[in-house]
From TrEMBL:
Signal peptide: none
InterPro entries per UniProt: AB_hydrolase_1, AB_hydrolase_fold, Carboxylesterase_BioH
Taxonomy, superkingdom: Bacteria
Record keywords: Hydrolase
Stated name of the protein: Alpha/beta fold hydrolase
Gene3D superfamilies: alpha/beta hydrolase (3.40.50.1820)
UniProt domain AB hydrolase-1: residue ranges: 18-243
Pfam short name (any one): Abhydrolase_1
Amino acid sequence: MTPFLAYEDKGADSSSVPLVLVHGHPFDRTMWAPQIETFSAARRVVAPDLRGYGASPVVPGITPLSAFAADIEALLDDLGVDTFVLGGLSMGGQIVMECYARFPDRIRGLVLADTFPAAETKDGRRARAAMADRLLREGMRGYADEVLELMVAPYASAEVKAHVHGMMTATPPEGAAAALRGRAQRPDYRGLLTRVAVPALVVVGADDTYTPVPDAEAMHAALPHSTLRVIEGAAHMPNLERPREFDEALAAFLEHVDASSQPSPHEPRL
């Protein structure tokens, strides 16, 4: 069966737990390029393009987080990836939370980067609907120009800015609008976080204004088994702005998961 999503699948299966990475809005799987390169040396790394983004099919209308999660589950079934560490940034982090709600037994660890668990506010729902209408009407470039130095810090390198701006302008407006409308309907995941039974890594850029450090601190406090890392010199995308520091935090977390990982319930026990 041909997978619905476009994806990167790099690194051989090994004793290390596979790593699955979910991009944010309005990006694509290339936002994880530094992490794919770093971590595929020792483990399998899978990074999909979400529906409506990158090279995946564009599905207009409304795409709820549950649809994104179902797509990821189906892709991992197709690829034979049974259990894994699941990480996401921003909207990708909210999709990770939805995945944990749907199939927690498959997830060995969570990475929640520059994200937050609360449901959308009334004002937020209106703003997302208005932005969806705008993107359909005007396209992505004006929006990308406006938010670039919020996505990454004004002092980010020209190379990083060009990469982020390029991802945003390449995103199909129909896919981005559908995700905005779906994200406006998301549930509140704060209660879910208190029931997460696996290790979690919470990461945030020190200068993130979309999901500031107090949001990350609140998630860290809610999660029973979590580590918090604040990345200095970064805004909303520390994995691209400060990849060395981000990867150091992720490497330590993955080492912990590998060491504590137990056999999957799908594997035979001796």
